[in-house]
Amino acid sequence: MSRAVILLSGGIDSYTTAGIAASIGHEIFALTIDYSQRHRREIESAKKIAASLGVKKHLILNIDLRQIGGSALTSDMDMPEGMFKGAIPSTYVPARNTIFLSTALGWAEVIGAGDIYIGATAIDYSGYPDCRPEYLKAFEDMANLATRLSIEGTLRFRINAPLINMSKAQIIKKGTIELGLDYGLSWSCYDPTVDGLPCGKCDSCIYRAKGFKEAGVIDKG
Amino acid sequence: MSRAVILLSGGIDSYTTAGIAASIGHEIFALTIDYSQRHRREIESAKKIAASLGVKKHLILNIDLRQIGGSALTSDMDMPEGMFKGAIPSTYVPARNTIFLSTALGWAEVIGAGDIYIGATAIDYSGYPDCRPEYLKAFEDMANLATRLSIEGTLRFRINAPLINMSKAQIIKKGTIELGLDYGLSWSCYDPTVDGLPCGKCDSCIYRAKGFKEAGVIDKG
């Protein structure tokens, strides 16, 4: 079994990505970043998902991006409502995927994992620059110049984003029908209510609801 | 004054880099990562250096790379002694500069700083892959695909490594003679003694001693 590091946030996309990686026989090392996000609730979901997938190891690493701010997820900015309409919304976290993938790269090198998986998707998404294929390719190129094992020729790193061309509905169908995932374990909402419930208004809630509706699947989350 | 984020470890190279950035008129935002390094002592030096340079802000961010390990600086591996002899030594920390530059990139985007400075040098160094010009160029290319401000065309990020082609002696001369830096504030040793003194044996101590000797400057550190 070849090892793979999976960035696991606790949402639908990273859960499905981890499920895909497991289904093709990788030994899963799940990495969750506690970045002091407004919806830290998702970390509890990541733990349940990691356990349900029987991962080899689940590492939860603190990187307090609230010290940097600049996003509705890591500061007191108002949370935008509704879907992406052309401008990148304030839920964009500066360099988040770069910081996360860099950390994944470090761990991958230590454990000898050539494959890094991220649940990035360029369809039904919020316009984040660090979810686009050209960005992921540039990260991969950089990663292979950055590391001892790659420049020694021992390991080549691949950044895998198997959902990149899938809609939320396609992702949910694949997870439910092909992979047998339980999305009741996952968490999407960016702005949980004081009672700990999804707000139903943020873009992540909206995309989730739209995805389940289009997939014809009941959301048990 | 244009803003710049400087990765400031507390060593000679990052101090000199910050001094250069300040000397050309940048407003300095210093970023120090507490990565649970064996030589966390260097963070105290970074604080003194930041104060002496009158930086606009000094951010110290925790990223516990000891949870990942894989290096003599972040685990209980034996510390190698002496200088680089062809093989990358165990003081290499997997993806360290990538993790640090990514964090710097996030902060730079938030504060609108196009310039990021790192004290990487490809001469008198330890063979680290993430100190080479081709790596830094690849990071810069990736960074400009990763961020909202870059893809919107508002800001182009530059990764500056002004010491890249300088020997340690050249760096020390420049800092002492041209920039008036006080290297007594800096810290280099990877493996401080229990009394908090430099070990004199690790590669970082060796390069420091060699650099001061060749520069003909007394080390007050």
| Name of the CATH first level of chain A | Alpha Beta
Name the chain pair whose interface involves the most residues.
Answer: A-B, 44 and 44 residues
Termini Cα gap of chain A: 32 Å
Biggest sheet character of chain A: 5 strands, parallel
Oligomer description: homodimer
Give the C-alpha Rg of chain A.
17 Å
- Helix fraction of chain A, binned, reads 25-40%
Structure described in brief:
2 copies of one chain form a homodimer. With about 220 residues, chain A is α/β, with parallel strands linked by helices.
Describe the overall structure:
2 copies of one chain form a homodimer. The first copy, chain A, has 221 residues and is of the alpha/beta class. Chain A has one domain: Rossmann fold (3-Layer(aba) Sandwich). Helices cover 38% and strands 11% of the residues of chain A. Chain A is built from 7 helices and 5 strands, in the order E-H-E-H-E-H-E-H-H-E-H-H. The first copy, chain A, has helices spanning 12-23, 41-53, 96-111, 133-146, 148-151, 168-178, 203-215; strands at residues 3-7, 27-34, 57-62, 115-117, 158-160. A 5-stranded parallel sheet of chain A has the order 3-2-1-4-5, sandwiched between helices. In chain A, strand 2, helix 2 and strand 3 (57-62) form a beta-alpha-beta unit. Chain A is globular and about 50 Å long. The two termini of chain A are 32 Å apart. The mean pLDDT of chain A is 95. Chain A binds chain B through residues 59, 61-65, 67-70, 88, 92-99, 101-103, 105-107, 109-110, 129-130, 132, 134-135, 138-139, 141-143, 145-148, 150-152, and chain B through 59, 61-65, 67-70, 88, 92-99, 101-103, 105-107, 109-110, 129-130, 132, 134-135, 138-139, 141-143, 145-148, 150-152.
